[in-house]
Amino acid sequence: MAAPDRVRYWEKTRNLMIIMMVLWAIFSFFIHMFVGSLNNIVILGFPLGFYMAAQGSLIVFVAMLFWFARKQNAIDVEHGVAED
Length: 84
What we know:
Helix content is 79%, strand content 5%. The protein has helices spanning 3-33, 35-38, 48-78, and strands at 42-43, 46-47. The protein starts with a helix and ends in a 6-residue tail after the last helix.
């Protein structure tokens, strides 16, 4: 891989990682900081704050994992470093 292409590859990879870390922080810390106010919203009989703390964050983390893998694979294919 040529040096300019390598720089673009790592910029895209770094930006993707920053996005993932921000989303992780939001669903790990910030959502849980507002559980009290989110409990005023009820969905299917469960307070939203309880749901986000108990299962919502876990569902988001799994979705983030698959999204990250797909996006990183697209970056790898674009720059010719993808695995078979």
